[in-house]
Amino acid sequence: MLACSAEHRSVCTVSAIAFLLLSFTLFSTTSAACSNGNCQVLEACSAATDCGTGLYCGNCPALGKTQPFCVRGQATIPTSIVNGLPFNKYTWVVTHNSFSIVDAPPLPGVQRLTFYNQEDTVTNQLRNGVRGLMLDMYDFDNDIWLCHSFRGQCFNFTAFQPAINTLKEVEAFLNDNPTEIVTIIIEDYVHTPKGLTMLFTNAGLDKYWFPVSKMPTKGEDWPTVTQMVQDNHRLLVFTSVASKEAEEGVAYQWKYMVENEAGDPGVVKGSCPNRKESKRLNSRSASLFFQNYFPTYPVQSDACKEHSNPLAAMVGTCYKAAGNLMPNFVAVNFYMRSDGGGVFDVVDRMNGPTLCGCSTVTACQAGAPFGSCKNVTVPNTSPVTNTAGSFTGSVQFSSSASTVLSPSCLILFLFCFSLMKFLL
What's this model's pTM, rounded to 2 decimal places? Predict the structure, then answer.
């Protein structure tokens, strides 16, 4: 178990990255069968009710793991263990295209033609510990819509729903959870004057808005999470359009954070280039670090493999590329899919070294000196023997998460999508 003193935090964090890679490999191996109702992560299951709280009964055929076992479906909220630190010291799970949900109903009479990135509602994402939402907003149908589109234009076959619907889900969550903080990253194609301001006000979110005037611009620490909660500044909103900051008071994303390249360039082993709009990752003029980790073309069945060792390795790569700075946000597709602990376990291991000097945040002890760590056991690694079960479980998706695109179907889909972009 890793433990460090406050004066050796840098060395501690570097060592913790190595520990993350090693222990995640061990953690990702499936364990032996257990009794119904008491199954923990990696233990065999035959029904949803076999798995404990925050787990579901799944598998990972992409890694050859077809026998069902319990998989994490919920994040550890780091502020519930270590509170009172600046906001930029924490790491949070983010969903890429949070609104692009499998089986979301299309517009009447229209066949939707676009990609899907998530499997459950935004409300459920937030309940499961997601604290960052990536939303693409467009002018469409005399309103502002969430749309997974191209060339800055929303079409009826790429539209999902009016953005206010999702923002009202966020408002309800913040109202029901008065100590939680949510970040929204907008890919912004809204040209309506004051459109974003009116949208967030109409959704009832203006009362939670973190003001741009209080955001650090020279790499300084953010206010503590305690202060943000006390001030009710619990919603951070960033836009991809620089002019919106002066026009509407919406923070320009790359003024306050650095970001690695999204899509396929962001998942290349051993490489973590900065996005072209972003400053270099090792720049210290921005105090937030946003790490993208998802392929350009999302495939549900591959996500469990992506969220195993490759994710842990890429965290280490990006940490080094940023000059030993831990990412504050990790954005993924199909966030609950993994071969065991997945995104949730990796983020626990990112928060631990930064917040308390331990290998994982679950080893932190509230109020204890930096480096005072509890013993946390790694699950047994014997093979699963049970062959029954299903992917859905106590952590429910909006529909069956077993629905995936076959390779031939995906190729046809990509061809059609590319053809539409060419024609339009």
Answer: 0.86
